[in-house]
Amino acid sequence: MNDWVEFRHFAYLLAIADYEGFRAAAEYLHTGEPNLSVQAKRFQEMLGIRLFKKGPRGRIQLTETGIAFKVIARELLQYRDDAIAALIAIDRGKIKSLTLGSASCVNRELFSVACKIHMEILPSCSVRPIYAATPELLDNLIAGSVDAAIVTSPIEDPRIFVEEIVQERVVVCIRADHPLARKTVLQANDIRHEPVIRCDPHRNPLVHAQLTAYLEDVGIVHSDYAWASHPAEVRTLVKDGFGFALVREGTVNDPELVTRIVAGTDWSLGSSLVYKRNEYPKTIPVLAEHLKHHFARSTSRQLMPEVQTTAHRSQSAPKRLPKSEGKASEQLSRLGRFRSIR
Prior knowledge:
Layout: H1 2-16, H2 22-28, H3 33-47, E1 52-54, E2 60-62, H4 64-91, E3 97-103, H5 108-121, E4 126-132, H6 134-143, E5 148-153, E6 160-175, E7 185-186, H7 188-191, E8 196-199, H8 205-217, E9 226-228, H9 231-239, E10 244-248, E11 257-262, E12 268-276, H10 284-297, H11 305-314, H12 326-339
Parallel strand pairs: 3-4, 3-5, 7-11, 8-9, 8-10
Antiparallel strand pairs: 1-2, 5-12, 6-10, 6-11, 6-12
Helix pairs in contact: 1-2, 1-3, 1-4, 4-10, 5-10
């Protein structure tokens, strides 16, 4: 019976994307199971797929396609709920301003795009930016003085909801005139005996531990290292010749510095949009969804290029449905426009 409920809710989601089908969907939600089976059959015929089959003793079972349908439907239904909650909050004038934080170590483009998308969603809402270290932003988030923030994950706090936006490659930052700068790709042995420059470990202990583990995995163990309280200060120490640093790819824009990949490594850090689990502006989940789609679909981004190449392949243009299935194509395309801002 739960499978029928899942189908019923997803059919409603498809119908509501089509204004003409809205009344039929409302009536359909109150029909009995026999009519549901008729609707399921029509839905399958419309798309040319098979969601259900008869199992032993005539019991209805999901096909492999039906199992996938159930998972996909659940995700879309969650987005539908978030979108409706945002629309209600906007209509009732509950979102007048947004205090959006950004950790000082994350890519500036993430914050810039987040502000732009939210202004597209709600132009009348003013955005107040806050730049700080991740622990400080999280404290302000819990206290209620920050509505949401873009920080480096992982985040381990049950009071905070974490929406990972993108994974960014971690690379070695060295002086442009360093002998190693002549190499396009470094080996672990190249930096094994070089001094390391780190960010203050108290700024984000989890990230500090992650980067330490990356170094130790290739045999680089440094109990003593130079450190600074801000990423810009770390880069200054690199320029002054005190060693190398691990940074996100694409965050260094200085002619005196270069970044290099270490062969055989898959070092990366996640950047996430976080907000208080039980209290947040209702446009934030919608913003998170649009941010994820923006960076997954943009092939020109410099954030984790190999991940984006994969994402681009998986989101290649779908095959067109036959003209006889035009109704289904129209409904699905409307649903797609509903989910993302171009």
